[in-house]
Design a protein that fits this description.
The chain is an alpha+beta fold. It has helices at 3-13, 60-74, 80-84, 99-103, 116-120, 133-142, 150-162, 177-191, 195-204, 247-251, 265-279, 288-294, 360-375, and strands at residues 19-26, 29-37, 54-55, 213-214, 232-233, 238-239, 261-263, 307-308, 324-328, 332-337, 342-348. The protein has two domains: 3-37 and 48-57 and 227-243 and 262-375, 3-Layer(aba) Sandwich (Beta-lactamase), CATH 3.40.710; 66-204, DD-peptidase/beta-lactamase superfamily (Beta-lactamase, 3-Layer(aba) Sandwich), CATH 3.40.710.10. The strands form three sheets. Strands 2-1-11-10-9-8 form a six-stranded antiparallel β-sheet, with helices on both faces. Strands 3-7-4 form a three-stranded antiparallel β-sheet. A two-stranded antiparallel sheet has the order 5-6.
Length: 378
C-alpha cells in the first residue's frame, strides 16, 4: 500500500471518518484516486467507491452559488428593480450592485449598504448562522407539510432579512451562512428560476456534472446505498441518508445558497478543472478576468466565495499563496493551486454518526502535505 492509502486507512481506523474518497489531478491528468471505508456504519456491506455521492455541505457555496452569481454577472443579467421603473435605463448587475436593488424594498436602512461583493466576501455584517429551522419546525406543528415547502423557504428568507447585523457592512470578514442564503435568493430573483433549476441548467449540465445536484436523485438513477450517510439527527430521529445534513437547508426543502448540494469526487474535480482553465484564460465557460477577481484575496481569508490559503491552512504547508478552495461541514474539501495546476478533492462523511467528531481538522493538513511529498516534485 502507498503512504497516502496508509494514512487514509489510519484515519478511518482511528474514527476520523467512516468513509472517504480522494481525487488528485494535475492539469488534465488524474494522478491519484481512491476510496476507503463504508458509506454507513449501519450498512456493513456497502463500501465507499469513487462514484459514491456525498453531501458536500458548504462546497455548495462555490460550486453552485458563487458560480451562479459569476455567471449572472458574466451574462449581463439586469436588476429587476431598475427594469421595473421605465424612467431607469436597464442596468446590468455587477459585484457592487446593492442587495436592495435585487430584493426590492425588504431591507432596513443599515442593510441597504450591502452589495453582492460584501455578501460573497463574508463582509456583509450578517452573523455566521442562526437556528431558523426551529421557527419552521414550530410552524410545521400548526400546519402539516409546511416544513420544506416553498412557504417555509420564503419564511427563511424573511427571517434572514430581519436578522440584525453584528457589525457594519465592510468592516471585517465573518464567515456567514446567512449571507449565502440571501445570495441564493438573489439568484432566484435575477434569473426567475429556482436555485436548483438555474444551477442545473447553467452550470451542472454544461460542465457535464451528471451526478451533482440538490436533493436526492431518483432511486432508478442512484440507489440510496450509493450515498454516504451523515449524522444521526436528534430532531429528525434518524441517520441522514440521501437528505441534506444542514438543518436550515433541510427546512427550506434542501435547496439553499449555503448548503444542500450532493456530488462525487469526479464531478467536483471536473468543475475545478473548468475553474482552473478559466483562471489561466484557456476556457471561456467562466470569464477569466472574473474568475481571477473572485479568487484573489491574499492575505485575507476570503476572496469572493472562495477561501484563500492563509496560515494555518487545511491545505497544509505547501500549496502556493495563490491557492483557493473551500471546506464543507460534513467533512468535504476542495483545494486548487493555479501555480502548479493542482486539484485535490477529499470527500468524507466525518459527521457520521455525530458532528462532535472534529478530528478532520488535524487530518486534512497532514493529508495535503503527504500528497505534496509523494506526488509534487517542484
Amino acid at each position: 500500500m502507498d503512504l497516502i492509502s496508509v494514512l487514509i486507512e489510519e484515519g478511518k481506523n482511528q474514527g476520523v471518518f467512516p468513509g472517504a474518497v480522494l481525487w488528485v489531478q494535475k492539469g488534465e491528468q488524474v494522478i491519484y484516486q481512491g476510496a476507503w471505508g463504508k458509506t454507513s456504519l449501519e450498512m456493513e456491506n456497502e463500501n465507499v467507491s469513487i462514484e459514491t455521492l456525498f453531501d458536500v455541505a458548504s462546497l455548495t457555496k462555490v460550486i453552485a452559488t458563487t458560480s451562479a452569481i459569476l455567471l449572472l454577472i458574466q451574462k449581463g443579467f439586469q436588476s429587476p428593480r431598475l427594469l421595473k421603473h421605465s424612467h431607469f435605463s436597464p442596468k446590468k448587475i455587477n459585484l457592487d450592485t446593492f442587495l436592495e436593488e435585487i430584493l426590492n424594498g425588504v431591507l432596513d436602512v443599515v442593510k441597504k449598504k450591502i452589495t453582492l461583493r460584501l455578501l460573497l466576501s463574508h463582509a456583509s455584517g450578517f452573523p455566521d448562522t442562526r437556528p431558523f429551522y426551529n421557527n419552521i419546525r414550530k410552524a410545521e406543528k400548526r400546519k402539516q407539510g409546511f416544513l420544506g415547502s416553498q412557504q417555509a423557504k420564503q419564511q427563511m428568507y424573511e427571517l434572514v432579512h430581519q436578522e440584525p447585523l453584528v457589525y457594519e457592512p465592510g468592516d471585517r470578514q465573518l464567515y456567514s451562512d446567512l449571507g449565502f442564503i440571501l445570495l441564493g435568493e438573489c439568484i432566484e430573483r435575477l434569473s426567475g428560476e429556482t436555485l436548483d433549476s438555474f444551477c442545473k441548467k447553467e452550470i451542472f449540465v454544461p460542465l457535464g456534472l451528471m451526478h451533482t445536484g440538490f436533493l436526492p436523485f431518483p432511486q432508478k438513477e442512484c440507489p440510496i446505498t450509493h450515498v454516504a450517510a451523515t449524522e444521526r439527527c436528534p430532531w429528525r430521529g434518524k441517520v441522514l441518508l440521501g437528505e441534506v445534513h444542514d438543518d436550515n437547508a433541510y427546512a427550506m426543502g434542501g435547496v439553499a445558497g449555503h448548503a444542500g448540494l450532493f456530488s462525487t469526487a469526479r464531478d467536483i474535480a471536473c468543475f475545478a478543472f473548468s475553474v482552473l482553465k478559466s483562471f489561466h484564460g484557456g476556457n471561456s465557460f467562466f470569464d477569466s478576468a472574473l474568475i481571477r477577481e473572485f479568487t484573489q484575496g491574499y492575505p485575507n481569508e476570503w476572496g469572493l466565495g472562495w477561501m484563500m490559503r492563509t496560515e494555518p491552512s487545511s491545505s497544509g504547508r505547501f500549496f502556493s499563496e495563490a491557492s483557493f478552495g473551500h471546506l464543507g461541514f460534513t467533512g468535504t474539501s476542495l483545494w486548487i493551486d493555479p501555480v502548479r495546476d493542482l486539484i485535490v478533492v477529499f470527500l468524507t462523511n466525518r459527521v457520521h454518526p455525530s458532528r462532535n467528531n472534529d478530528q478532520i481538522k488535524f487530518f486534512r493538513p497532514r493529508l495535503h502535505d503527504l500528497i505534496f511529498k509523494e506526488m509534487i516534485h517542484d
